[in-house]
């Protein structure tokens, strides 16, 4: 199985709930390693750039407003099948549809304030990791 890197964001709602550690623990318990991490207050422009793929969607402005409403905790997770594994740990976008025991089922309030982001494919993971972290700041171990 391939060792992958993926970008994880703990969104402003989960940061405000003070559950960063609980969420990171789930990644670690599943065998993923934190290869880089930092707290960031995104600017409007940065949030718009990060979510540019959604710019024509009706929820785009609300999504950007939400993502800049407070600091986020961004991290690179590394491990076997990290991209899919992270998505499975996160659960469905809408917490009402997320499987029991997933991060969104346990910590998210709504489809917009849904606790976490995770890259959805190899190409997006590479772009999203590079958006936040210079290559020299990501540590395989
Ligand atoms: N989103 C929203 N309303 C929707 C769909 C998505 O507010 O109807 C937000 C939500 O925060 C989601 C993000 O836009 O996490 C990106 O949507 P995507 O479909 O890529 O979901 P994800 O990959 O985060 O599960």
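^ Assign residues to that structure.
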């Amino acid at each position: 199985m391939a060792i992958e890197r993926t970008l994880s964001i703990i969104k402003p709602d989960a940061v405000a709930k003070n559950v960063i550690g609980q969420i990171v623990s789930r990644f670690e318990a599943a065998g993923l390693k934190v290869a880089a991490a930092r707290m960031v207050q995104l600017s409007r422009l940065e949030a718009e750039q990060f979510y540019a793929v959604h710019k024509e969607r009706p929820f785009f402005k609300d999504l950007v407003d939400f993502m800049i409403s407070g600091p986020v905790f961004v991290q690179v997770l590394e491990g076997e099948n990290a991209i899919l594994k992270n998505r499975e740990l996160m659960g469905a976008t809408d917490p009402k549809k997320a499987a029991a025991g997933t991060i969104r089922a346990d910590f998210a309030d709504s489809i917009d304030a849904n606790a976490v982001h995770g890259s959805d494919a190899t190409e997006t993971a590479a772009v999203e990791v590079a958006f936040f972290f210079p290559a020299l700041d990501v540590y395989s171990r």
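The longest helix spans residues 122-132.
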